[in-house]
Write a structure and sequence with these properties.
By secondary structure, this protein is of the alpha+beta class. Helices cover 41% and strands 15% of the residues. The two termini are 34 Å apart. Mean pLDDT is 85; it is low at 288-330. InterPro entries: Kinase-like_dom_sf, Prot_kinase_dom, Protein_kinase_ATP_BS, Ser/Thr_kinase_AS, WAK-like. Belongs to the protein kinase superfamily. ATP binds at residue 42.
C-alpha cells in the first residue's frame, strides 16, 4: 500500500485516530477508499532493531491463517520502517475488559472461552504451521477482542521461527516482565515452553484479576509463586477474584491446576499448548458430562517441593487424550 493512501486513511496520522500504543509502535484506525476499516501500525523510531522487528512481523503473519490470530492485510515499504496494515478489531484488548472498575468483570464462561481460544491459537502456531512459531509476548494487552469477544492474538514483533531440527533458539531477551519465562529471562533460550509459561501467567490473571507486575510491588511476592503456594495449600479462595468464586463452580481447581502446570520452573515438566488446549476443553465440558480422570498425587515429595514445582492433581492417559480430542474438530 502507498504512503499517500495510508495518510489519507488516517488524516495524516492524526492523534484522534490513535487506538493503541506500545513499545514497538503506535496503532491508528484508518478508513480506506472502499470504506474498509483497518488498523495501521506506525513505528515510534527507526532503529535497525525496529526495522528487523517490523519485517519479522510481516514474514510471520503472512504465514498464518487462523481465526484467532489478527490478519495482516498489507504493508507500506515507502518509509524507512515498514507500516503494517491489519484487520481492524473494534473492541479493545483483554486487559481493557478484564481490569475494569468495580467488582464485576468478564464472566467466568467468557474468561474460560478466551483462554481456550488463546491456547488453541498458540497450539496452532507451535505445531500446525509450516515452521513452528513462538509468539514471545503473550499477555492480555496483546489479546484483541472483537464485538463478540472473540480472541485475536496480535503483536508478533518479538515472535520467532523455530527451525524444524531445533527445539529452540538463543536470542536477545524481549517481552514483558511478569509474563516472561524465568528460564528464557536468565538464559536467552526461547522455546515453545516460554509461551506456555506466559499463558499460565495470563490464566492466573484471568482467575485473580491481579496484574503480575503490580502484584509484586504490593505484596512483595510475585503473583505466580503466591498462586502456586495457595493452590498447594488448598487456599485459593485467598487470591481468586470473588466473581470467579461465585461463578466458577466445581472446575475452579482444575483450571487452577492447568495454570500451575504451565508455570513450573522446569520447562520439561510444563505441558504443551496442545495439551493445555485439550485440558481446558475437557474441564469446560465436565459441566455436561463426567470426565474420566485419574487423580495422581506424588505424596513422596516434601510439601515444600510440591509447592515449588507446582504439581497438578490430574493426569490423562494417552488413550483418554485421543478419545477426548475426537470431540473437538480442529
Amino acid at each position: 500500500m502507498t504512503l499517500e493512501e495510508l495518510e489519507k486513511a488516517t488524516n495524516n496520522f492524526d492523534q484522534r485516530h490513535e487506538i493503541g500504543s506500545g513499545g514497538h509502535g503506535t496503532v491508528y484506525k484508518g478508513i480506506l477508499p472502499d470504506l474498509h476499516a483497518v488498523a495501521i501500525k506506525k513505528p515510534k523510531m527507526a532503529t535497525q532493531r525496529d526495522i528487523d522487528e517490523f519485517l519479522n512481523e510481516v514474514a510471520i503473519l503472512s504465514q498464518i491463517n487462523h481465526k484467532n490470530v489478527v490478519k495482516l492485510y498489507g504493508c507500506c515499504l515507502e518509509t524507512k520502517v515498514p507500516l503494517l496494515v491489519y484487520e481492524f478489531i473494534s473492541n479493545g484488548t483483554l486487559r481493557d475488559h478484564l481490569h475494569v472498575q468495580g467488582p464485576i468483570s468478564l464472566s467466568w464462561d467468557d474468561r474460560l472461552r478466551i483462554a481456550t481460544e488463546t491456547a488453541r491459537s498458540l497450539a496452532y502456531l507451535h505445531s500446525a504451521t509450516l515452521i513452528p512459531i513462538i509468539h514471545g509476548d503473550i499477555k492480555p494487552a496483546n489479546i484483541l477482542m472483537d464485538d463478540t469477544l472473540t480472541t485475536k492474538i496480535a503483536d508478533f514483533g518479538t515472535s520467532r521461527y523455530i527451525p524444524l531440527d531445533q527445539s529452540g533458539l538463543t536470542t536477545t531477551v524481549q517481552g514483558t516482565l511478569g509474563y516472561l519465562d524465568p528460564v528464557y529471562l536468565h538464559t536467552g533460550r526461547l522455546t515453545e515452553k516460554s509461551d506456555v509459561y506466559s499463558f499460565g501467567v495470563m490464566l492466573i490473571e484471568l482467575m485473580t484479576r491481579k496484574k503480575p507486575f503490580d502484584y509484586m510491588a504490593i505484596e512483595d511476592i510475585i503473583l505466580v509463586e503466591h498462586f502456586a503456594t495457595l493452590f498447594a495449600e488448598g487456599n485459593l479462595s485467598q487470591i481468586l477474584d470473588p466473581q470467579i468464586m461465585n461463578e466458577g463452580g466445581n472446575i475452579i481447581e482444575e483450571i487452577a491446576g492447568i495454570a500451575v502446570a504451565c508455570i513450573k520452573l522446569r520447562r520439561e515438566e510444563r505441558p504443551t499448548m496442545r495439551q493445555v488446549e485439550l485440558r481446558l476443553q475437557v474441564a469446560q465440558s465436565s459441566k455436561g458430562f463426567e470426565a474420566n480422570v485419574n487423580i495422581v498425587v506424588d505424596s513422596s515429595l516434601p510439601r515444600d517441593e510440591r509447592i515449588k514445582e507446582g504439581l497438578t492433581s490430574r493426569q490423562y492417559s494417552m488413550e483418554e487424550e485421543y478419545m477426548l480430542s475426537g470431540r473437538y474438530p480442529r
